[in-house]
Design goal:
19% strand, eight-stranded mixed sheet, 43% helix, alpha/beta, globular
C-alpha cells in the first residue's frame, strides 16, 4: 500500500494557510523544527517508520538571486517523477537552494552565500531532508516561498533567538524586542509579508494537490 505524502514545514506559521484549506486523506502536514539538526532528527524518525509516498520540504526561504522577489514560489523537484511539471503549472519556478545552519540575516550574509553556492535561495532544512529521502528511495522535493529578498536585512538576528531543539524562543524574542524597540515596525512588516508569502505558497501547493488528485 502506498503511504501518504508528507508536507514538512519548520514552524506552524508556514503551514497555517495550507492547513486551513484542508488536505486529502493521504496527505499529512508535519513540523520538523528549524535548522539542519532538527530536520535530520525528523527525517530519520520518518524513515524509521512506514515509508511515505513522498516528502515535500516547504516553508520560507531567503532570496539570494536579486531577480527573485518577495512571494516568489521556487521549487526543486529533483528526481520525483512527474512532479516538476505540476509545480511549474501551479506557478512555481525551478530554482537551486542552499541549506545553511544559520539564518542569513543581512543582505551581506545572503550575498556571501550566493557567491559561495550559486544558489537562488537559502533555507535551513531542505538539503538534509531531500538527501536522506532520496538515499532511502523516497521521492523528496523542495517547495519554498521567498519571505525576504536578497537585498533585505532582517530586523533581528534570529540565530540568537533559536533553541537547541530548533524552535524560536519567545522569551528571547521578547527580550530582544525590549532591548531594541525601534525594530518593532520592521518586525510588524516582516510578519505581514511572511503571512502573504505563506498564502502564496499554500496556493501553489493546493494546485499541486488538486492536480495530483485529477
Amino acid at each position: 500500500m502506498t503511504g501518504p505524502w508528507i508536507i514538512c514545514f519548520a514552524v506552524a506559521a508556514e503551514a497555517a494557510p495550507l492547513r486551513r484549506r484542508g488536505l486529502p486523506a493521504d496527505v499529512t502536514i508535519q513540523l520538523c523544527g528549524m535548522g539542519p539538526g532538527a530536520a535530520r532528527r525528523w527525517i530519520e524518525a520518518v524513515l524509521a517508520g512506514p515509508r511515505p509516498a513522498g516528502v515535500l520540504s516547504c516553508g520560507f526561504a531567503g532570496g539570494l538571486d536579486p531577480a527573485r522577489h518577495l512571494g516568489d514560489v521556487l521549487a526543486d523537484a529533483g528526481g520525483w517523477p512527474g512532479l516538476g511539471p505540476k509545480l511549474e503549472a501551479a506557478g512555481a519556478r525551478t530554482a537551486r537552494f542552499a541549506t545553511e545552519a544559520r539564518v542569513a540575516v543581512t543582505a551581506a550574509d545572503k550575498a556571501a552565500v550566493r557567491a559561495r553556492t550559486g544558489a537562488d535561495a537559502v533555507e535551513m532544512e531542505s538539503g538534509v531532508i531531500v538527501s536522506a529521502g532520496r538515499a532511502a528511495g523516497v521521492p523528496a522535493a523542495v517547495v519554498r516561498v521567498i519571505s525576504d529578498a536578497a537585498g533585505d536585512d532582517l530586523p533581528l538576528d534570529f540565530n540568537a533567538l533559536m533553541t537547541p531543539a530548533g524552535r524560536l524562543s519567545l522569551p528571547r524574542l521578547a527580550l530582544a524586542v525590549a532591548a531594541r524597540p525601534g525594530r518593532i515596525p520592521a518586525l510588524v512588516r516582516l510578519g505581514r509579508s511572511s503571512r502573504r508569502a505563506a498564502e502564496k505558497l499554500a496556493d501553489v501547493l493546493g494546485r499541486v494537490l488538486d492536480a495530483r488528485q485529477g
